[in-house]
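ARCHIVE RECORD
Type: protein–small molecule complex
Small molecule: zinc ion
Source of inputs: curated submission
Record status: active
Notes field left blank by submitter.
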Amino acid sequence: MSIERDPVCAMEATNSKITSTYQGKMYYFCSECCKISFELNPEKYLAKIKK
Ligand SMILES: [Zn+2]
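STRUCTURE (tokenized, with ligand):
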């Protein structure tokens, strides 16, 4: 079992029902607000979490 983090605000969002799939990967969000932010500009948030 892995811990999923909201890519927008970095809060833990494991088991959240608010999800979005982007480029074949599912992301979890703490709120609809974060999900909408992500969907508007996913590359911006993914660039931050890529190592
Ligand atoms: Zn969030």
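CURATOR ANNOTATION: The chain has a mean pLDDT of 94.
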